[in-house]
């Protein structure tokens, strides 16, 4: 008989706790965030803030690639997802010759651009320079050359919903 009373009491307490917790969770302030999950940042509807009270916009970006380039003519393959057609690419040429790269949209076979990066230089490319409405989704490849020399470089790229996010 004691077991039945104990189980009934435990169930009653559990239901009472649920009756208090559920409405509190439903009607809680949507801007409130627990500091226990991540003490270094907190979020509001539109922005995240760091402890120094610096606003950091919440953007939607995707990493496309981050590669070390070596060899006679390395190839980098990547894909752009629909809605992420704004691209930023950074290339650091450690080769002692000019680095040439050619971007090709694999699905259509179209060669979209050819760029040159001087020996020892760093180059940033934004898709807004030539593709102001963004690049089409699909598979891409970049062919890298250094005038017959061994390529020694690094490159990375991200894609975003809008050019403001790059």
Structural class: alpha+beta
Q: Could you give the order of the helices and strands?
A: HEEEEEEEEEEE
Helix content: 10-25%
- The CATH class of the domain at 61-165: Mainly Beta
Instruction: Tell me the total number of β-strands.
Output: 11
Overall, the morphology is globular
Count the DSSP helices. 1
Pick out the low-confidence regions: 20-57
- Main sheet characteristics: 4 strands, antiparallel
- Report how far the terminal alpha carbons are from each other: 68 Å
CATH topology of the domain at 61-165: Jelly Rolls
CATH architecture of the domain at 61-165: Sandwich
- The proportion of strand residues reads 35-45%
Query: What is the spatial order of strands in the main beta sheet?
Result: 4-11-6-9
Describe the 3D structure.
The protein has one helix and eleven strands. The termini are far apart. A hairpin with a 3-residue loop joins strand 1 and strand 2. The chain has a domain of 105 residues: Jelly Rolls, CATH 2.60.120. The chain has 166 residues and is α+β, with helices and mostly antiparallel strands. The chain is globular and about 35 Å long. The strands form three sheets. Strands 4-11-6-9 form a four-stranded antiparallel β-sheet, with no helix packed on it. A four-stranded antiparallel β-sheet has the order 5-10-7-8, with no helix packed on it. Strands 1-2-3 form a three-stranded antiparallel β-sheet, with no helix packed on it.
Q: Key terms for this structure?
A:
15% helix, Jelly Rolls, 166 residues, alpha+beta, four-stranded antiparallel beta sheet, 1 helix, globular
């Amino acid at each position: 008989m004691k077991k039945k009373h104990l189980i009934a009491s435990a169930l009653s307490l559990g239901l009472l706790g649920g009756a208090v917790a559920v409405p509190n969770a439903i009607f809680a302030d949507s801007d409130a965030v627990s500091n226990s999950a991540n003490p270094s940042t907190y979020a509001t509807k539109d922005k995240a803030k760091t402890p120094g009270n610096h606003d950091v916009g919440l953007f939607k970006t995707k990493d496309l690639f981050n590669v070390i380039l070596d060899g006679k003519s390395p190839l980098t393959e990547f894909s752009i997802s629909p809605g992420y057609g704004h691209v930023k690419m950074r290339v650091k040429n450690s080769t002692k010759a000019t680095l040439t790269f050619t971007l090709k949209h694999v699905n259509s076979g179209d060669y979209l651009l050819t760029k040159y990066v001087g020996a020892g230089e760093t180059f940033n490319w934004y898709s807004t320079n030539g593709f102001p409405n963004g690049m089409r989704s699909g598979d891409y490849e970049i062919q890298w050359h250094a005038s017959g020399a061994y390529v020694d470089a690094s490159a990375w790229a991200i894609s975003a919903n809008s050019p403001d996010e790059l």
